[in-house]
Design brief:
Structural class: mainly alpha
Strand order of the largest sheet: 3-4-7
Bound molecules: glutamic acid, zinc ion
CATH topology of the largest domain: Rossmann fold
Largest sheet: 3 strands, antiparallel
CATH class of the largest domain: Alpha Beta
Oligomer: single chain
Distance between the termini: 83 Å
Number of domains: 3
Helix content: 40-55%
């Protein structure tokens, strides 16, 4: 069987972790099977369609470096791949269902539907929904209403008895009594546009989709889709509903946990390689230990039998760790090219950067790699190399366990060591700081922190001695003196 998978987003909002996970799994599965990955735009809900969301979808795929084999702008003989361009097809299939008795026109007004909904709620009925009133209209009645141009929708005749089974690759048989399927859902809306269910089933069939990998939130729609395939006399594709995506607290991942849109991750400076790698581990694992995978490796190794039934967890800290690992492994030149625009935009360096600035930055890359979790942190980490520090906060200079007097002592001792740094290795420097710390009876951290703050203006910086050498010993000494003076005032 030739494998054809699809990602079928509705462009109503920004691409998020869950959606991208679905896209990647469909993509990797198709690739690993030598199949095709199709992008289909499900835009038949014209009220909720957003151009911005569509653009974000394109941006996200471009940024991830994921290309579809068939889809918008890339015809593979099954197009168009945008559903709003296929409504004629959807309409004619809806007609077909009316003709063979699986669907019917409903002329009920929104007011009537609202009234029955309220009555059902009041009487606490098990199934809330359409009362199938128009199923009983005679052919003549329908003709009269149509002549009067009465607005109408097309509804599916859900069988009232029997049971429908969806066979899911991961979950096994998902059974549903037909009486529990929503009564007679709309297939074609009054505006002539198909609903999700109709368009989705027709297009999956016509595009010869073999496997549907999608989020578990679509399970409730599954039996209805199977009934539609049966009504058309079509073989349904194979389904695989993917494990849920949770936050570390075991709740469904949502904005409460943090950013979920890929746009946010792009802007903060996560790397596409790290995002692809980490997202692929949500609900899938190759074995018990291996964590690092390139896109090319996943294109080979991804298989459905390695999916987990249990929900997957999205852990922001773990992603940060992954991203940091990918930054460390990156070549200095590539990293520099990635951070440069951010440094310019944040006003840290000139546009274009001066030769001096470029020289410093080249020296910074190997040092900064160890500390950089996301590219967006770069400016604050290197600001001190390009800009003098205006205004120290005396409180920030003084470590928690020390007072001003002691901090001055620490800084003076630090200054004396820094003075000698031209002839010292970093290890020797550290040994001297350690020695002094003991002598002054303070912890090594408390010994180093005031120097760090004097140097950078903040408590987080790249490794201290390397930072000093990057800025220059003389400039560092000036900054230390300045802080000593500040602490001595008052
Ligand atoms: N358009 C649906 C969505 O936005 C597709 C669901 C499916 O994969 O069937 O997720
Ligand atoms: Zn009706």
């Amino acid at each position: 069987m030739s494998v054809r998978t699809r990602y079928a987003p509705s462009p109503t909002g920004l691409q998020h972790i869950g959606g991208v996970r679905t896209a990647l799994f469909n993509y990797f599965f198709a690739k690993s099977q030598g199949g095709k990955f199709i992008l289909r735009i499900e835009d038949t809900d014209r009220q909720r369609y957003s151009e911005e969301a569509y653009q974000d979808l394109l941006d996200t795929f471009a940024w991830l470096g994921i290309e579809w084999d068939e889809g918008p702008e890339k015809d593979g003989g099954f197009g168009p791949y945008v559903q709003s361009e296929r409504v004629e097809t959807h309409r004619s299939y809806a007609e077909e269902l009316i003709e063979n008795g699986h669907a019917y026109r409903c002329f009920c007004t929104p007011q009537r539907l609202e009234r029955i909904r309220q009555e059902q709620t009041k009487n606490k009925l098990k199934v809330i929904g359409y009362d199938r009133h128009c199923r009983e209209l005679s052919g003549e009645e329908v003709q009269v209403f149509l002549k009067q141009d009465k607005p109408n929708v097309v509804r599916f005749k859900v069988p009232e008895r029997g049971c429908t089974v969806l066979h899911d690759i991961l979950l096994g048989a998902v059974k549903r009594q037909n009486e529990d399927v929503s009564p007679d859902p709309v297939l074609l809306k009054a505006d002539g546009f198909p609903t999700y269910h109709l368009a989705n089933v027709i297009d999956d069939h016509l595009m010869e989709i073999s496997h549907i990998l999608r989020a578990q939130e679509w399970i409730p729609s599954g039996p209805l889709h199977i009934l539609l395939y049966q009504a058309f006399g079509w073989e349904p594709p194979l389904y695989c509903h993917l494990p849920m995506v949770m936050g570390t607290d075991g709740q469904k991942l949502s904005k409460r946990h943090g950013s979920t849109s890929l746009k946010d991750f792009r802007e903060k400076g996560y790397l596409p390689e790290a995002i692809i790698n980490y997202i692929s581990l949500i609900g899938w694992s190759f074995d018990d230990s291996r964590e690092f995978f390139t896109r090319e490796e996943l294109e080979e190794l991804f298989t459905l039998d390695k999916l987990n039934k249990a929900p997957g967890v999205f852990d922001y800290k773990k992603l940060d760790w992954f991203n940091g690992q990918y930054i460390r492994r990156m070549e200095d030149e590539k990293l520099l090219a990635l951070v440069l625009p951010r440094l310019v935009e944040d006003g840290i360096i000139h546009d274009p950067p001066s030769e001096d600035e470029e020289g410093i930055l080249k020296g910074v890359m190997p040092v900064i790699k160890e500390r950089l979790k996301v590219l967006g942190d770069i400016s604050e980490l290197v600001r001190f190399l390009f800009h003098d520090i205006h205004g120290y906060d005396p409180e920030a200079v003084v470590p928690k366990k020390l007072d001003r007097g002691k901090t001055v002592k620490v800084l003076e001792a630090g200054r004396d060591i820094v003075r000698r740094m031209t002839t010292l290795s970093d290890e020797e420097c550290e040994a001297l700081f350690r020695e002094k710390a003991e002598e002054l009876d303070v912890k090594l951290g408390a010994m180093l922190m005031p120097v760090r703050v004097a140097l950078t203006g903040t408590t987080v910086s790249p490794p201290l001695f390397e930072s000093i050498r990057l800025l220059g010993i003389d400039k560092t000494l000036v900054r230390i003196e300045r802080v000593i003076e500040l602490l001595n005032k008052r």
